[in-house]
Amino acid sequence: MRPSRHMLALVIGLAALSVGLVVLRPEDTTLILLPWGGLFLLMVLDLALTVPARGIRPEAEIVARGFAGHDAMLAVTLTAKRLPPSAELRLSHSAGLAPAEGTPIPLPVRATSARIDIPIRLRDRGAQTITRLWLRYPSRLHLFEVLPNWALDLTITVMPDISPILSGAIQAQMLPLLDGARVNNLRGSGSEFHQLRDFVSGMDPRSIDWKRSARVNNLVARETRVERNHQIILCLDTGHLMGERLGALTKLDHAIHAALALAWASGLAGDNVGFFSFGARPQPLIPPRPGRAAFGRIQSTCATLEQDEAESNPTLGLSVLNGKLKRRSLVVVFADFVDSTSAELLVENLAVMQRQHVVLYVALGDPAMQALTRPDSTGMEDVAKAIAASRILQERQAVLDRLNRLGILCLDSAPGKLSAALISRYIEIKAKEMI
Q: Which residues of the chain have pLDDT under 50?
């Protein structure tokens, strides 16, 4: 319990009044005691009318698991013989949680129980804890602030976001490639044998199978389709640059979510998926397996993947990966750079890998940087920020253009659109049979 602002204002006012009485009526000391005695009686009355903190019993519960970037609801139930009219809740928690707290919450009048739902943004992967609940409410006459607190032992495991997979959004995006009109258009232009059919007018004469046609004494055509069982390697940079936050999540978390979405989409398309990560040192390669069989292992690896505080070493990481790949693959590299100078090693190693594999470089654009290039005012500080942001974006685009000239595919997307854009690019690569 502590004095409120009203109490401090009264004390300051009475102190000024006491000084005035001493100056004006130094012989009459009883006048000084009267206002302080009245304040004391007011304080006693306020404490008698206020809901005691020891009579409040809280209960809190939260879901055991949640997805990074989403909200989890913490349900707090307060029980007492009589609840205060309003209260403010605060939590002691791990740094990976961001609860919406600190706003006064009205409670039911003369109620004995009330339930409060607090949305908590899940920022970081891993086990996050809530250790203590703090309550603050004013006394009946607003002379004091009551500050009870209770220990909590709540743990929520934050996992990579696979909600697009569970909702079927990725499967819906893949339907045109698997069963829809897109597949019908791709038949006849692929390299994998699909079926034999009678040759009819309008078909490509190059599709005629002359040996089989001679056996049946009728023109027979070979129908092909897009090749399956390609090898997809998801490669993540876990260096300190990937720790920058874009919104609620880090670049590494955005990359993990997009990588898991692509792993699931590759499984639907019948491809084999592997996983590799590197920071200052490379991590073991998860060998490519059929997408759905590999998804569980990749998901568990991503759930425990930690960001490296040191600078990443793309030369060592990509060289190790290139030496382990014995088959032509689609290598999807999630990495970041600051400027053209820091990107030099990354560009050189991607160029080496591109000689044997199809390389798709995925970069995350910062919407805040784009917003700085369009200032709302023409002040000197805003103009200087706009010029600096434009220069950074120009250097970034120069690196991407250089990668394109080297034959490396590039995808630069905003965080919220990354998964959908990556799957669309994957479908395009499959359709063009670039692997």
A: 180-189
